[in-house]
Amino acid sequence: MTEPSSDGGRTFRRATDRVALGIAQGLCTLDDGVGWFSGLTPTCRQGVLREVAGYAMQAHITAADGRAGVARSGVKPTANPAVMICMGPPRYGFAGLPSAEHIKAFRVLVSVFAVADTRRRGCVGAA
User: Fold this and answer.
1) pLDDT of the residue at 125
2) What is the value of pTM for the model shown?
């Protein structure tokens, strides 16, 4: 999958949902998700970053979620995406980052979403 399909992007969004939720629920690894994300075009990557940022917003991430997610992501805390998500309030303009930062942004967003979603669902030890 490289570009959104003629179905208005629904197939693309479902793939994003499947990957992000799979990582958050421990059904696939972050590295698996990064492998999928890396195979996308820069335009598709931007779309995924917007979608996953939306998931993080809906999960009502906290500063603690941001710090825990960054630690889990494997991205340095001083990298742009890590700094953006840990700001109070978090910044969500990840799709506007240079394409060289997209993989770091994906790792941070999915990891923070996983932490927040687990907290929100009241699950202990998941994600």
Assistant:
1) 52
2) 0.84
What is the DSSP secondary structure assignment for residue 90, as one 8-state letter?
P
Neighbour-count burial for 7-43, b at 16+ CB within 10 Å, e otherwise:
eeeeebeebbeebbbbbbeeebebeebbebbeebeee
Domain ranges of the chain: 10-121
- Closest residue by Cα to residue 81 from 57, 102, 58: 102
Among the residue ranges 3-17, 32-46, 53-67, 94-108, the one predicted with the least confidence is: 3-17
Query: Are residues 109 and 90 in contact, defined by beta-carbon separation less than 8 angstroms?
Result: no
Chain centroid, CA 114 distance in Å: 8
Query: Three-state DSSP class for 119?
Result: helix
Contact between residue 37 and residue 72 where contact means Cβ atoms under 8 Å apart:
no
